[in-house]
Predict the 3D structure of the following.
Amino acid sequence: MSRQPFVSPLLSMNSTRFSDLDFGAVAVGEGLANLKKDLHQALLDSFSSIPDSFQAEMHELLDAYCGTRQDFYRLFYVPVWSFLHWIPYPRSVDESGYGTVRLAVQAHALSLFIHLWDDHLSDSQLPPDMLRIHSRTTAWQQFVASAHELCRDFGLDPNQVEWACSTYLKATHRPIMCLDLTEYEEQFRKEVAIWTLVPRLVGSSLQPEAGEALSRIIEQFAIAWRIIDDIQDIHSDIAGHKKTAVWMELPVEGRLVWESCRKSIAACGELPPEEWSLLTRHILESGCLDRLLQRIQLLLRGSADAARAQGWHSLAVELEQSLIAM
């Protein structure tokens, strides 16, 4: 049976006045460009154990998924991985060529991949097949193993790995019903527990306070990313019956219009322009959009201040560059 052409779930089908809102651009020099290549190579290396017959297809799938060749980590904003370049953690290489650098890069590369892959497998935007499921299993096993080895090399408590994995799995398996933005953010903190594990370990290799600080910085950036993603994807989130940060900040009248839009999409497969126009007006005139943008800016500035307090000035600059032009 021939395979169906793969269409990436990341290709947005709807362009709206909200879809172009984005973080500011972060300057990427040679060091960061090389790190991004290392992250991609670490991902490919994690699949070296899958059957040879799957290798080429997996590489093709990754390229189709991210929309370009051999650059999977273009899907992730720079500050969520650049700390591996900027933070002066103890760098070593053992006889096998691993050591702390390779372990940190591999564990973090896989944490980012797993979070995104799981999300799309779970909601069927990425239809599951044997290769996609097996690649996820392989990535998870190597993520856990790499994180454990990193704990060993840094002399840190390996129970941190179990906590992060358990927190992530519980949060994503049975997300709670959030009633406001505070609960929504707290839920997402748990959902990115595997993203903040390597920052915690890398920072803790310097001192415990640095581990807490770096974990919190990445966590706050991730929450800001979640909110801006919700703003960009309003149209598709309505169709998916999702109650996002935008829904949380809408007054009752706006939520009723949101529900009316959802019913229209369910009934006829598309959102009538007049209903979309009415919802857009509620989002703008109620102050919903302004409040969310202000929250994003507050998270980014707080992260930048925390980075600068630790002496991580280059990371602070990136977080400031990420501020939205308003």
Remarks:
- Residues 130-154 form the longest helix (25 residues).
- The two ends are 52 Å apart (CA to CA).
